Amino acid sequence: EEHSRFATFIPTFMGTLELNSEPDPAAAVPRTAILNPTEAGQSITESPHAIPNAPVVEKAWAPSNGGKIKTNLAIVLENVAAPFKNPNILDVKLGARLWDDNAPPAKRIKLDKVAEETTSKSLGFRIAGMRTWQGAAASAGSGGTLKDGYRLYDKHYGRTLTSETVRQGFEDYFLLERGGVIATKSPLRIVVKRFIEDLVELKSALENEESRMYSASLLFVYEGNRDALVDALAREKEGPANGVNGDEASEEEDDDQQVPAVQGLKLIDFAHAEWTPGQGSDKNLLYGLRCTIEVLEGLLEA
Q1: Would you say 189 and 174 are in contact if contact means Cβ atoms under 8 Å apart?
Q2: Residue 63: partners with Cβ closer than 8 Å, 6 or more residues away
């Protein structure tokens, strides 16, 4: 099947959800508006509300600052964190170039500046956010803010890291001491090795695809509750009927009998992605993948 290797790293599409039956009036185009042809998908003369010979003013791009898109329709994807008791989640944004060919000049300048000031430019990736389970003690890791037993790190945390200090971000994600190496018998060693194996497989799959993905992210998830992690690993040893990896959970499992997961890796955020036959593999994305693999491998080395 076409793109089958790549598809294993994409969250499962569950369908669509209509948020309400009536359209949002605030999102509607005013009847007196002059429509930009590139936004309306038609020429000015085709618009029923167009004013003859009226000048067309390009809508200036402005950052959304995390604002929500005004729409009544949403796509529904699988909840990658569902099989975990206390999921530790990490979002790694890939690419030194973060804008697609359709981006206006103002957006290009803004995103190039972000890349220059972060590890996006030098390493092809940056930490965009994460959360780690702390439990009642809430003492592991550093920085971030504490909430409901988790330590939360927003996008600004990742932007403070440099190519020399980015390892610290992964140390915080895996709850390691500064400069620490994961012990040979630690369950986390298994987790990191599996992440590396997944990344190598994803890299191989993308090397054989002709696509472009700008501002896509790697979503890392592993069991942050140590007892639950040990239990999930033990159930794996008992056999496939009792324990499986996060990406291989059986569709036949009942929701109230969720198979415990160890870890999972997905590629997400495809607002600026397309297949590009004849243009070769996505070197911008692949560079970030290779650098991410190198950092994880460093956590296993003395």
Answers
A1: no
A2: 107, 110
Let me know how many helices (H) and strands (E) the chain has, helices first: 9, 10
pLDDT tens digits along 191-248: 999 999 999 999 999 999 999 999 999 999 999 999 999 999 999 988 765 444 555 5
Residue type, 277: P
pTM for the model: 0.79
Q: What is the DSSP string of 171-233?
A: HHHTTPPTT----TT-HHHHHHHHHHHHHHHHHHHHHT--EEESS-EEEEEEE--HHHHHHHH
CA 169, CA 178: separation in Å to the nearest integer? Answer: 10
Q: Give me 266's structure tokens.
A: 């997905």
Answer for the pair 108, 124: CB distance below 8 angstroms, yes or no: no
HSE of 167, CA atoms in CB hemisphere, 13 A = 16
Residues contacting residue 118 through CB under 8 Å, at least 6 positions apart:
126, 158, 159, 161
How far is CA 55 from each of CA 33, 37, 46, 176, 241, rounded to the nearest angstrom?
12, 12, 15, 60, 67
- The amino acid at residue 29 is V
Nearest to 11 by CA among 272, 286, 246, 274: 246
Q: How far apart are the first and last CA of the chain?
A: 42
Alpha-carbon span 62 to 107, nearest angstrom: 8
**What is the per-residue pLDDT across 74-121, written as a single tens digit (0 to 9) for each?**
888 899 999 999 999 999 999 999 999 999 999 999 999 999 999 999
Could you tell me where the DSSP H helices lie in the chain?
4-7, 37-40, 105-117, 119-123, 155-159, 166-173, 187-207, 226-238, 283-298
Nearest Cα neighbor of 194 from 244, 151, 160 is: 244
Taking CA atoms, 104 is separated from 95, 108, 109, 222, in Å, by 18, 6, 9, 38
